[in-house]
UniProtKB/TrEMBL annotation:
Biological process according to GO: L-tryptophan biosynthetic process
GO molecular function: 4-amino-4-deoxychorismate synthase activity
InterPro entries listed in its UniProt record: ADC_synthase, Aminotrans_IV, Aminotransferase-like, Anth_synth_I-like, BCAT-like_C, BCAT-like_N, Chorismate_C
Domain Chorismate-utilising enzyme C-terminal: 3-247
Origin: domain of life: Bacteria
Entry-linked SUPFAM superfamilies: ADC synthase (SSF56322), D-aminoacid aminotransferase-like PLP-dependent enzymes (SSF56752)
The keyword Transferase is assigned to this record: yes
Alphabetical keyword list: Aminotransferase, Transferase
Keyword Transferase listed: yes
Official protein name in the record: Bifunctional aminodeoxychorismate synthase component I/aminotransferase
Length: 490
Protein backbone atom coordinates (compact mmCIF):
# COMPACT_ATOMS: atom_id res chain seq x y z
CA UNK A 1 0.00 0.00 0.00
CA UNK A 2 2.77 2.44 0.94
CA UNK A 3 4.72 1.41 -2.15
CA UNK A 4 1.76 2.47 -4.33
CA UNK A 5 1.44 5.76 -2.44
CA UNK A 6 5.11 6.53 -3.05
CA UNK A 7 4.80 5.83 -6.79
CA UNK A 8 1.74 8.13 -6.93
CA UNK A 9 3.61 10.90 -5.08
CA UNK A 10 6.54 10.61 -7.51
CA UNK A 11 4.19 10.76 -10.51
CA UNK A 12 2.67 13.99 -9.15
CA UNK A 13 6.09 15.55 -8.54
CA UNK A 14 5.81 15.74 -4.75
CA UNK A 15 9.06 13.76 -4.31
CA UNK A 16 11.69 12.17 -6.55
CA UNK A 17 12.90 9.46 -4.20
CA UNK A 18 11.70 8.06 -0.86
CA UNK A 19 13.56 5.76 1.49
CA UNK A 20 10.66 3.62 2.69
CA UNK A 21 11.37 1.38 5.68
CA UNK A 22 9.70 -1.23 7.83
CA UNK A 23 10.66 -3.01 11.02
CA UNK A 24 10.12 -6.38 12.59
CA UNK A 25 10.56 -7.63 16.13
CA UNK A 26 11.66 -10.91 17.62
CA UNK A 27 12.04 -12.30 21.11
CA UNK A 28 15.29 -13.83 22.31
CA UNK A 29 16.88 -14.62 25.65
CA UNK A 30 20.29 -14.63 24.00
CA UNK A 31 22.75 -12.25 25.60
CA UNK A 32 22.99 -9.16 23.40
CA UNK A 33 26.80 -9.00 23.40
CA UNK A 34 26.97 -12.69 22.46
CA UNK A 35 24.60 -11.94 19.58
CA UNK A 36 26.74 -8.95 18.60
CA UNK A 37 29.87 -11.11 18.38
CA UNK A 38 27.99 -13.79 16.47
CA UNK A 39 26.64 -11.36 13.87
CA UNK A 40 30.00 -9.62 13.67
CA UNK A 41 31.44 -12.78 12.13
CA UNK A 42 28.96 -12.24 9.26
CA UNK A 43 29.24 -8.49 8.85
CA UNK A 44 32.39 -7.00 10.36
CA UNK A 45 31.89 -3.44 9.17
CA UNK A 46 33.99 -0.35 9.74
CA UNK A 47 31.29 1.35 11.80
CA UNK A 48 30.26 -1.51 14.08
CA UNK A 49 29.12 -0.49 17.55
CA UNK A 50 27.74 -2.07 20.70
CA UNK A 51 26.07 0.34 23.12
CA UNK A 52 24.33 -0.48 26.38
CA UNK A 53 22.61 1.92 28.73
CA UNK A 54 19.94 1.67 31.43
CA UNK A 55 17.00 1.31 29.03
CA UNK A 56 18.22 -0.32 25.82
CA UNK A 57 21.04 -2.04 23.95
CA UNK A 58 22.15 -1.19 20.42
CA UNK A 59 23.93 -3.60 18.07
CA UNK A 60 24.99 -1.78 14.93
CA UNK A 61 26.74 -3.22 11.89
CA UNK A 62 26.51 -0.14 9.72
CA UNK A 63 28.64 -0.06 6.57
CA UNK A 64 27.73 3.57 5.84
CA UNK A 65 29.65 6.69 6.82
CA UNK A 66 27.46 9.69 7.62
CA UNK A 67 30.30 12.19 7.89
CA UNK A 68 33.75 12.58 9.35
CA UNK A 69 35.77 15.71 10.02
CA UNK A 70 39.42 16.36 10.62
CA UNK A 71 40.33 19.91 11.48
CA UNK A 72 38.41 21.83 8.77
CA UNK A 73 37.90 19.01 6.26
CA UNK A 74 34.54 17.22 6.08
CA UNK A 75 33.92 14.01 4.19
CA UNK A 76 30.62 12.17 3.51
CA UNK A 77 30.02 8.87 1.75
CA UNK A 78 26.32 8.28 0.93
CA UNK A 79 25.32 4.72 0.07
CA UNK A 80 22.68 3.98 -2.56
CA UNK A 81 22.51 0.95 -4.84
CA UNK A 82 22.45 -2.70 -3.74
CA UNK A 83 22.90 -6.12 -5.32
CA UNK A 84 23.38 -9.55 -3.79
CA UNK A 85 26.64 -11.45 -3.81
CA UNK A 86 27.09 -14.81 -5.51
CA UNK A 87 29.17 -17.77 -4.35
CA UNK A 88 30.45 -18.19 -7.92
CA UNK A 89 33.33 -15.65 -8.34
CA UNK A 90 32.49 -15.08 -12.02
CA UNK A 91 28.79 -14.42 -11.34
CA UNK A 92 29.73 -12.27 -8.35
CA UNK A 93 31.89 -10.08 -10.58
CA UNK A 94 29.05 -9.90 -13.12
CA UNK A 95 26.75 -8.64 -10.35
CA UNK A 96 29.23 -5.87 -9.51
CA UNK A 97 29.45 -4.81 -13.14
CA UNK A 98 25.66 -4.78 -13.40
CA UNK A 99 25.40 -2.56 -10.31
CA UNK A 100 27.98 -0.14 -11.71
CA UNK A 101 25.97 0.26 -14.93
CA UNK A 102 22.34 -0.08 -13.83
CA UNK A 103 20.48 3.16 -14.60
CA UNK A 104 18.06 2.81 -11.67
CA UNK A 105 20.83 2.41 -9.08
CA UNK A 106 22.91 5.15 -10.70
CA UNK A 107 20.00 7.59 -10.65
CA UNK A 108 19.27 6.80 -6.98
CA UNK A 109 22.90 7.43 -6.10
CA UNK A 110 23.11 10.70 -8.03
CA UNK A 111 19.94 12.06 -6.42
CA UNK A 112 21.34 11.50 -2.93
CA UNK A 113 24.73 12.92 -3.89
CA UNK A 114 23.00 16.07 -5.13
CA UNK A 115 21.14 16.26 -1.84
CA UNK A 116 24.38 15.90 0.16
CA UNK A 117 26.09 18.52 -2.01
CA UNK A 118 23.25 20.89 -1.25
CA UNK A 119 23.42 20.18 2.50
CA UNK A 120 27.20 20.55 2.60
CA UNK A 121 27.10 23.85 0.69
CA UNK A 122 25.61 25.48 3.81
CA UNK A 123 28.73 24.85 5.89
CA UNK A 124 31.70 24.63 3.48
CA UNK A 125 33.71 27.28 1.67
CA UNK A 126 33.05 28.15 -1.95
CA UNK A 127 34.79 26.05 -4.62
CA UNK A 128 35.94 23.44 -2.06
CA UNK A 129 33.25 20.88 -2.96
CA UNK A 130 34.58 17.66 -4.52
CA UNK A 131 32.65 14.56 -5.60
CA UNK A 132 33.69 11.05 -6.56
CA UNK A 133 30.84 8.94 -7.90
CA UNK A 134 29.91 5.26 -8.08
CA UNK A 135 32.41 3.25 -6.03
CA UNK A 136 31.51 -0.34 -5.10
CA UNK A 137 31.87 -1.67 -1.56
CA UNK A 138 31.65 -5.44 -1.08
CA UNK A 139 30.26 -7.07 2.07
CA UNK A 140 29.68 -10.76 2.89
CA UNK A 141 26.08 -10.80 1.59
CA UNK A 142 25.87 -7.86 -0.82
CA UNK A 143 27.62 -5.21 -2.92
CA UNK A 144 26.73 -1.56 -2.32
CA UNK A 145 27.34 1.55 -4.40
CA UNK A 146 28.80 4.57 -2.64
CA UNK A 147 29.91 8.03 -3.67
CA UNK A 148 32.13 10.53 -1.89
CA UNK A 149 31.27 14.17 -1.27
CA UNK A 150 33.71 16.40 0.60
CA UNK A 151 34.68 19.98 1.23
CA UNK A 152 36.43 22.46 3.52
CA UNK A 153 34.43 23.73 6.47
CA UNK A 154 33.91 27.44 6.95
CA UNK A 155 35.76 28.95 9.91
CA UNK A 156 34.30 28.36 13.37
CA UNK A 157 31.67 25.86 12.22
CA UNK A 158 30.54 23.90 15.28
CA UNK A 159 29.47 20.27 15.48
CA UNK A 160 25.94 21.51 16.19
CA UNK A 161 25.95 23.48 12.93
CA UNK A 162 27.17 20.42 11.02
CA UNK A 163 24.30 18.34 12.37
CA UNK A 164 21.82 21.13 11.70
CA UNK A 165 22.90 21.17 8.06
CA UNK A 166 23.23 17.41 7.45
CA UNK A 167 20.99 15.47 9.82
CA UNK A 168 19.23 13.22 9.06
CA UNK A 169 21.39 11.79 6.31
CA UNK A 170 19.80 12.18 2.88
CA UNK A 171 20.38 8.52 2.01
CA UNK A 172 17.72 7.46 4.52
CA UNK A 173 15.16 10.20 3.75
CA UNK A 174 14.79 10.97 0.05
CA UNK A 175 14.64 13.96 -2.26
CA UNK A 176 13.72 16.71 -1.81
CA UNK A 177 14.72 16.22 1.80
CA UNK A 178 12.18 18.21 3.85
CA UNK A 179 9.18 17.06 1.81
CA UNK A 180 10.46 13.48 1.96
CA UNK A 181 10.65 13.61 5.76
CA UNK A 182 7.05 14.86 5.97
CA UNK A 183 5.87 12.18 3.55
CA UNK A 184 7.72 9.41 5.43
CA UNK A 185 6.04 10.46 8.68
CA UNK A 186 2.65 10.18 6.93
CA UNK A 187 3.45 6.74 5.54
CA UNK A 188 5.31 4.98 8.34
CA UNK A 189 3.54 6.52 11.36
CA UNK A 190 6.16 5.24 13.78
CA UNK A 191 9.37 6.30 15.46
CA UNK A 192 12.35 4.71 13.71
CA UNK A 193 14.32 4.75 16.97
CA UNK A 194 18.09 4.59 16.56
CA UNK A 195 17.58 3.16 13.06
CA UNK A 196 18.51 5.80 10.46
CA UNK A 197 19.93 7.96 13.24
CA UNK A 198 23.66 8.21 13.81
CA UNK A 199 26.35 6.72 16.04
CA UNK A 200 29.77 8.27 16.36
CA UNK A 201 32.87 9.35 18.23
CA UNK A 202 33.85 12.92 19.07
CA UNK A 203 37.50 13.91 19.52
CA UNK A 204 39.19 17.24 19.97
CA UNK A 205 40.07 17.87 16.32
CA UNK A 206 38.13 15.14 14.54
CA UNK A 207 34.77 13.36 14.56
CA UNK A 208 33.30 10.34 12.82
CA UNK A 209 29.63 9.30 12.58
CA UNK A 210 27.86 6.42 10.88
CA UNK A 211 24.35 6.15 9.49
CA UNK A 212 22.69 3.69 11.88
CA UNK A 213 21.48 1.12 9.35
CA UNK A 214 21.84 -2.69 9.76
CA UNK A 215 21.12 -2.00 13.41
CA UNK A 216 19.34 -3.93 16.15
CA UNK A 217 17.76 -2.24 19.14
CA UNK A 218 16.92 -4.28 22.24
CA UNK A 219 14.54 -3.40 25.06
CA UNK A 220 13.83 -6.06 27.69
CA UNK A 221 13.98 -9.29 25.62
CA UNK A 222 12.57 -7.78 22.41
CA UNK A 223 14.88 -6.98 19.48
CA UNK A 224 13.80 -4.57 16.74
CA UNK A 225 15.45 -4.61 13.31
CA UNK A 226 14.52 -2.23 10.51
CA UNK A 227 15.38 -2.18 6.85
CA UNK A 228 14.44 -0.10 3.84
CA UNK A 229 15.09 0.74 0.22
CA UNK A 230 15.13 3.82 -1.95
CA UNK A 231 12.07 4.05 -4.20
CA UNK A 232 12.18 5.99 -7.48
CA UNK A 233 9.81 6.17 -10.46
CA UNK A 234 10.97 2.94 -12.10
CA UNK A 235 11.16 0.88 -8.87
CA UNK A 236 9.46 -2.51 -8.99
CA UNK A 237 7.75 -3.95 -5.92
CA UNK A 238 9.28 -7.43 -6.25
CA UNK A 239 12.81 -6.07 -6.65
CA UNK A 240 12.45 -3.75 -3.64
CA UNK A 241 11.07 -6.56 -1.49
CA UNK A 242 14.03 -8.76 -2.46
CA UNK A 243 16.34 -5.91 -1.42
CA UNK A 244 14.70 -5.81 2.01
CA UNK A 245 15.31 -9.54 2.41
CA UNK A 246 18.90 -9.13 1.27
CA UNK A 247 19.58 -6.39 3.82
CA UNK A 248 18.06 -8.59 6.53
CA UNK A 249 20.14 -11.64 5.60
CA UNK A 250 22.52 -10.92 8.48
CA UNK A 251 19.75 -12.23 10.76
CA UNK A 252 19.22 -15.53 8.95
CA UNK A 253 19.53 -18.56 11.29
CA UNK A 254 23.17 -19.19 12.07
CA UNK A 255 24.83 -22.49 11.37
CA UNK A 256 25.77 -23.99 14.73
CA UNK A 257 26.07 -27.48 16.14
CA UNK A 258 25.45 -29.22 19.45
CA UNK A 259 28.09 -31.38 21.07
CA UNK A 260 29.07 -33.48 24.08
CA UNK A 261 32.54 -34.20 25.43
CA UNK A 262 33.04 -37.55 27.17
CA UNK A 263 35.77 -39.52 28.87
CA UNK A 264 36.64 -42.89 27.32
CA UNK A 265 38.98 -45.69 28.25
CA UNK A 266 39.53 -49.00 26.43
CA UNK A 267 36.51 -48.47 24.15
CA UNK A 268 34.24 -47.74 27.09
CA UNK A 269 32.58 -44.34 27.42
CA UNK A 270 31.71 -42.83 30.78
CA UNK A 271 28.14 -41.52 31.17
CA UNK A 272 27.40 -42.20 27.48
CA UNK A 273 23.64 -42.57 28.03
CA UNK A 274 23.48 -39.44 30.18
CA UNK A 275 25.35 -37.41 27.58
CA UNK A 276 23.08 -38.68 24.80
CA UNK A 277 19.95 -37.72 26.76
CA UNK A 278 21.25 -34.21 27.32
CA UNK A 279 22.22 -33.90 23.65
CA UNK A 280 18.78 -35.08 22.52
CA UNK A 281 16.98 -32.67 24.85
CA UNK A 282 18.97 -29.77 23.39
CA UNK A 283 18.37 -31.05 19.86
CA UNK A 284 14.61 -31.09 20.42
CA UNK A 285 14.77 -27.57 21.85
CA UNK A 286 16.52 -26.24 18.73
CA UNK A 287 14.63 -28.40 16.23
CA UNK A 288 17.59 -30.58 15.22
CA UNK A 289 16.89 -33.86 13.44
CA UNK A 290 17.42 -36.70 15.96
CA UNK A 291 16.19 -39.69 13.91
CA UNK A 292 19.64 -41.14 13.13
CA UNK A 293 20.86 -40.53 16.68
CA UNK A 294 17.91 -42.43 18.17
CA UNK A 295 18.35 -45.26 15.67
CA UNK A 296 22.12 -45.70 16.05
CA UNK A 297 22.13 -45.44 19.86
CA UNK A 298 18.89 -47.32 20.49
CA UNK A 299 20.54 -50.01 22.62
CA UNK A 300 22.40 -47.51 24.80
CA UNK A 301 19.35 -45.30 25.31
CA UNK A 302 17.22 -48.28 26.32
CA UNK A 303 19.61 -49.69 28.90
CA UNK A 304 18.16 -49.53 32.39
CA UNK A 305 19.97 -47.10 34.65
CA UNK A 306 20.30 -47.73 38.36
CA UNK A 307 22.24 -45.56 40.77
CA UNK A 308 21.68 -47.86 43.77
CA UNK A 309 25.25 -49.13 43.83
CA UNK A 310 26.51 -45.55 44.24
CA UNK A 311 24.28 -44.41 47.10
CA UNK A 312 26.46 -45.24 50.10
CA UNK A 313 29.62 -43.46 48.99
CA UNK A 314 31.11 -40.23 50.20
CA UNK A 315 31.84 -37.62 47.53
CA UNK A 316 35.54 -38.46 47.39
CA UNK A 317 35.14 -42.24 47.45
CA UNK A 318 32.54 -42.01 44.70
CA UNK A 319 34.82 -39.85 42.55
CA UNK A 320 37.60 -42.42 42.93
CA UNK A 321 35.26 -45.24 41.88
CA UNK A 322 33.76 -43.37 38.92
CA UNK A 323 37.08 -42.44 37.32
CA UNK A 324 39.41 -45.24 38.39
CA UNK A 325 37.38 -48.45 38.71
CA UNK A 326 35.01 -50.55 36.61
CA UNK A 327 31.27 -49.95 37.02
CA UNK A 328 27.95 -49.78 35.16
CA UNK A 329 28.30 -46.14 34.09
CA UNK A 330 30.99 -47.12 31.59
CA UNK A 331 29.20 -48.11 28.38
CA UNK A 332 30.79 -50.43 25.83
CA UNK A 333 30.92 -48.71 22.48
CA UNK A 334 33.28 -49.40 19.55
CA UNK A 335 35.12 -46.19 18.76
CA UNK A 336 34.83 -45.24 15.05
CA UNK A 337 38.55 -44.58 14.52
CA UNK A 338 41.25 -46.54 12.73
CA UNK A 339 43.70 -45.90 15.56
CA UNK A 340 41.70 -45.07 18.69
CA UNK A 341 43.50 -43.84 21.79
CA UNK A 342 43.42 -46.14 24.82
CA UNK A 343 42.22 -43.21 26.90
CA UNK A 344 41.11 -39.71 26.04
CA UNK A 345 38.31 -37.27 25.30
CA UNK A 346 35.56 -38.14 22.84
CA UNK A 347 33.60 -35.30 21.25
CA UNK A 348 30.21 -36.12 19.73
CA UNK A 349 28.99 -33.40 17.33
CA UNK A 350 25.37 -33.24 16.14
CA UNK A 351 24.41 -31.09 13.14
CA UNK A 352 20.97 -29.64 12.46
CA UNK A 353 20.20 -32.11 9.65
CA UNK A 354 20.84 -35.09 11.94
CA UNK A 355 24.36 -35.95 10.83
CA UNK A 356 26.81 -36.58 13.62
CA UNK A 357 30.50 -37.26 13.96
CA UNK A 358 33.06 -38.24 16.59
CA UNK A 359 36.40 -36.62 17.31
CA UNK A 360 39.02 -37.92 19.73
CA UNK A 361 41.76 -36.05 21.55
CA UNK A 362 44.32 -36.81 24.22
CA UNK A 363 43.48 -36.19 27.86
CA UNK A 364 46.07 -33.61 28.89
CA UNK A 365 46.68 -33.21 32.58
CA UNK A 366 46.59 -29.73 34.07
CA UNK A 367 48.95 -29.28 37.01
CA UNK A 368 47.66 -25.83 37.94
CA UNK A 369 45.11 -25.67 40.78
CA UNK A 370 44.23 -21.96 40.59
CA UNK A 371 40.62 -20.84 40.09
CA UNK A 372 40.45 -17.36 38.58
CA UNK A 373 37.43 -15.06 38.88
CA UNK A 374 36.22 -13.28 35.77
CA UNK A 375 34.93 -9.70 35.75
CA UNK A 376 32.75 -10.52 32.72
CA UNK A 377 29.16 -11.11 33.82
CA UNK A 378 26.90 -13.89 32.53
CA UNK A 379 23.33 -13.08 31.55
CA UNK A 380 21.33 -15.74 33.38
CA UNK A 381 18.44 -15.39 30.90
CA UNK A 382 20.57 -16.40 27.91
CA UNK A 383 19.42 -19.72 26.40
CA UNK A 384 22.95 -20.45 25.25
CA UNK A 385 24.14 -21.12 28.79
CA UNK A 386 21.85 -24.10 29.25
CA UNK A 387 22.88 -26.03 26.13
CA UNK A 388 26.28 -27.20 24.93
CA UNK A 389 26.77 -25.79 21.45
CA UNK A 390 29.35 -24.15 19.22
CA UNK A 391 27.93 -20.77 20.31
CA UNK A 392 30.45 -20.50 23.13
CA UNK A 393 32.49 -17.44 22.23
CA UNK A 394 31.95 -15.98 25.72
CA UNK A 395 33.78 -18.92 27.29
CA UNK A 396 36.19 -19.56 24.43
CA UNK A 397 37.80 -16.15 24.84
CA UNK A 398 38.91 -17.22 28.34
CA UNK A 399 39.90 -20.81 27.57
CA UNK A 400 43.47 -19.92 26.59
CA UNK A 401 44.21 -19.38 30.29
CA UNK A 402 43.72 -23.01 31.26
CA UNK A 403 45.00 -24.27 27.90
CA UNK A 404 48.31 -22.56 28.72
CA UNK A 405 48.18 -23.94 32.28
CA UNK A 406 47.79 -20.44 33.75
CA UNK A 407 44.91 -21.74 35.86
CA UNK A 408 42.63 -24.74 36.21
CA UNK A 409 39.50 -22.79 35.30
CA UNK A 410 37.81 -19.38 35.39
CA UNK A 411 34.63 -18.84 37.44
CA UNK A 412 31.83 -16.52 36.33
CA UNK A 413 29.08 -14.56 38.07
CA UNK A 414 25.75 -13.41 36.64
CA UNK A 415 24.09 -10.00 36.51
CA UNK A 416 22.83 -10.54 40.10
CA UNK A 417 26.38 -11.35 41.28
CA UNK A 418 25.42 -14.99 41.80
CA UNK A 419 28.14 -17.59 41.29
CA UNK A 420 27.49 -19.63 38.13
CA UNK A 421 30.10 -21.99 36.69
CA UNK A 422 33.57 -22.26 35.25
CA UNK A 423 34.39 -22.09 31.56
CA UNK A 424 34.72 -25.90 31.47
CA UNK A 425 33.55 -27.11 34.90
CA UNK A 426 30.80 -26.88 37.47
CA UNK A 427 31.68 -25.68 40.95
CA UNK A 428 31.28 -27.15 44.45
CA UNK A 429 31.83 -25.25 47.70
CA UNK A 430 32.45 -27.11 50.97
CA UNK A 431 31.23 -25.43 54.16
CA UNK A 432 30.49 -26.99 57.57
CA UNK A 433 30.81 -30.51 56.13
CA UNK A 434 28.17 -29.71 53.48
CA UNK A 435 28.74 -29.50 49.73
CA UNK A 436 26.93 -26.82 47.72
CA UNK A 437 26.74 -26.07 44.00
CA UNK A 438 25.19 -23.01 42.30
CA UNK A 439 21.54 -23.40 41.32
CA UNK A 440 20.74 -23.98 37.65
CA UNK A 441 18.69 -20.79 37.27
CA UNK A 442 21.75 -18.70 38.10
CA UNK A 443 22.88 -19.51 34.55
CA UNK A 444 24.92 -22.56 33.62
CA UNK A 445 25.16 -25.83 31.77
CA UNK A 446 23.85 -28.64 33.96
CA UNK A 447 26.94 -30.84 33.79
CA UNK A 448 26.38 -34.58 33.55
CA UNK A 449 28.59 -35.28 36.58
CA UNK A 450 27.01 -32.41 38.52
CA UNK A 451 23.53 -33.74 37.78
CA UNK A 452 24.60 -37.22 38.87
CA UNK A 453 25.89 -35.94 42.22
CA UNK A 454 22.79 -33.78 42.80
CA UNK A 455 20.51 -36.78 42.18
CA UNK A 456 22.49 -38.84 44.70
CA UNK A 457 22.11 -36.05 47.27
CA UNK A 458 25.87 -35.63 47.68
CA UNK A 459 25.75 -31.95 46.69
CA UNK A 460 22.95 -29.44 47.22
CA UNK A 461 21.84 -26.65 44.91
CA UNK A 462 21.84 -23.16 46.35
CA UNK A 463 22.14 -19.53 45.29
CA UNK A 464 25.80 -18.72 45.98
CA UNK A 465 27.68 -15.43 45.91
CA UNK A 466 31.28 -14.23 45.93
CA UNK A 467 31.27 -14.09 49.72
CA UNK A 468 30.35 -17.78 49.82
CA UNK A 469 33.33 -18.47 47.61
CA UNK A 470 35.66 -16.60 49.97
CA UNK A 471 34.20 -18.26 53.08
CA UNK A 472 34.26 -21.81 51.68
CA UNK A 473 36.54 -24.25 53.47
CA UNK A 474 37.31 -25.95 50.16
CA UNK A 475 36.49 -25.32 46.49
CA UNK A 476 36.19 -28.01 43.83
CA UNK A 477 35.81 -28.00 40.05
CA UNK A 478 34.01 -30.97 38.49
CA UNK A 479 33.14 -32.32 35.07
CA UNK A 480 32.49 -35.74 33.56
CA UNK A 481 35.86 -35.89 31.81
CA UNK A 482 38.26 -35.05 34.63
CA UNK A 483 36.21 -35.72 37.74
CA UNK A 484 36.71 -33.72 40.93
CA UNK A 485 39.61 -31.28 41.32
CA UNK A 486 40.36 -29.29 44.46
CA UNK A 487 41.27 -25.70 43.56
CA UNK A 488 42.14 -22.47 45.34
CA UNK A 489 41.55 -18.81 44.67
CA UNK A 490 44.53 -16.75 43.63
Amino acid sequence: ENFIKVKEAISKGRVYQINLTQNFKFHSKMDSFELFKLLLSRQDTEFKAFIKDETREILSFSPELFFKTKKRKIFTKPMKGTIKRDKDPIKDEENKIFLQNDTKNLSENVMICDLLRNDLSKIITKKSLKTKLFEIQSHPTLHQMTSSVQGKLKKNISLYQIFKALFPCGSITGAPKLESIKFIEELEQRDRGIYCGTIGLIHKNKNKFSVAIRTLEKQDEIYTYSTGSGLVWDSKFKDEFEELKLKSAILNPCDFYLFETMYFKNSQILFLKEHLLRLINSALKFNFNTHKLFKDFYNVLNQKSSYKEYQNFTLFKLDEKIFHKKHSLFYNFPLPFKNPHKEGILKLILYRDGRYEFQQSALKQNSNDILLLSDDKINSKSDNLYHKSSLRSFYNQHSYKWQQNLCYDIAFFNEKDELCEGSRTNLILEKNAQFYTPQIQSGMLNGVYRNFLVNLGLIKEKALFKQDLFEAENIYCINSVRGLKKVKLQ
